[in-house]
Amino acid sequence: MTGKVVIVTGANAGIGFETAFNMARRGAKVYLACRDDARGAKAVEEIVSRTGNKHVIYKHLDLASLNSVRSFVEDIKKAEYRVDVLINNAGMTGYGLKKTEDGIVTEMQVNHFGHFLLTVLLVPLLKKSDDARVVVVASTLHRFGSIDFKTINKEATWKIPYYGAIRLYSTSKLCNVLFSNELARRLEGTTVTVNSLHPGHVRTSIYKNLDRVTETIMNFLLSTFFKSAVEGAQTSIYLAAADDLTGTTGRFFEECKEARMSVKAEDEELAEKLWNYSAELVKLKPEEAI
Question: Which Gene Ontology MF annotations are present (predicted)?
Answer without folding.
Answer: oxidoreductase activity
